Amino acid sequence: MPNTKRRRLFVRGAAATIAVALGATALAACGSSDEDSAESGPVSLTYWTWTPGMDKVVDLWNKGQGKKDQITVTVKKQASGDTLVTKILTAHKAGKAPDLVQAEYQALPTLVSNDALADIAKNVGDAKSKFADGVWQQTTLGTDAVYAVPQDIGPMMFYYRADLFKKYGLTVPTTWEQFAATARALKEKAPETDLTTFSANDSGLFAGLAQQAGAKWWTTSGDKWNVGINDAATKKVADFWGGLVKEGAIDNQPMYTPAWNKALNTGKQIAWVSAVWAPGTLTTAAPDTKGKWAMAPLPQWSNSENVTGSWGGSSTAVTTDSKHKEAAAKFAAWLNTDGDALNALAKESGIYPASTSAQLSGAFTTPPDYFSNQADFYTTAAKIAKTTAPSAWGPNVNVAYTTFKDAFGAAAKDKSDFSAALDKMQADTVADLKKQGFEVSE
């Protein structure tokens, strides 16, 4: 594979196809290798993942399809997030990356731009048909290449205390305008109670809300990146939440703290904008309120819209260092499309599958125990998942997220201008891209 400074990929947004330059090395030419077909005999693969219980899921492969194909997979438990991305890139520079890695969707552009992931389009069969278009797009970056197979997703939705909404005479909001009105109405009826909080610790939540509003944080013009973190859609989101915090209509404290848990458990906060995995969190954070919550679609920016954002989710990718790319891709496809594998992932790992067929089968035919009062929980979740907006990730999501926590953390604490914090996020992300050697449109 020849070394080139830039290689163009194509990322499809909701209505347009745009050329994207991912820097540093050639990409698509690193696709599936003929070396697998020339090999015979047993193949051993190593898989880096943070998913709990993955070893039990992989055992199904090793004792079944893997035994037939003489392909054995060994799980190596890793940390998640930026820690794993850094470890993968370090190993890749030494030519010692594992065969397979679990990668969050927002990390894929970083890994691809560093030539760490192989194109496995020729080795995953009809896997594309198993996933919603918006989900599959995240693993292709909009090109004809396939850099991973989707594993789990985090479509966003609205959770609320059904009993307390009834007590306070509140209606479940279907628009963000109604959401704001609901927050204010609650404050009038119960001044010590908040509808929810804005948590500056959770950049993924804010990114998902911006995604729902139509934001495209990273796009390109020719060979140049465009950074649109402070675009009109995201400013609308920032101003909306900043306005509610400033007027005191909602709380301004971070989530996942003892104080937040207590607020949920005692009814001091009665709603939560979250994702499909929320029941697991609520089980721990608010154990005394089991059976009192309900889930509904995320409020919309207009009555005519029906779209949600994503908060979380990951994929299974094959590295360019693997000497067994075809075998690794076969396992990645099995792990995320086979019915038995997906049922095991749900049971052992508690994930919400990206596979559309799995969202209404196996473990997802009955509601989570915490939501036993809402029989249609997973039926509703599957409908919401299909409305997920396209994403637009870039090669330095980690920088944008770090600045979010710093700038929005200060703004939330001081109840100051969220728009200024957004501009800081934009400036830091652009500066970092330039520092890395990417060309950036001004």
UniProtKB/TrEMBL annotation:
Pfam families from the UniProt entry: SBP_bac_1 (PF01547)
Keywords attached to this entry: Cell membrane, Lipoprotein, Membrane, Palmitate, Signal
Signal peptide interval: 1-28
Transferase recorded as keyword: no
The protein's name in its UniProt record: Extracellular solute-binding protein
Organism for this UniProt entry: Streptomyces asoensis
Phylogenetic lineage: Bacteria, Bacillati, Actinomycetota, Actinomycetes, Kitasatosporales
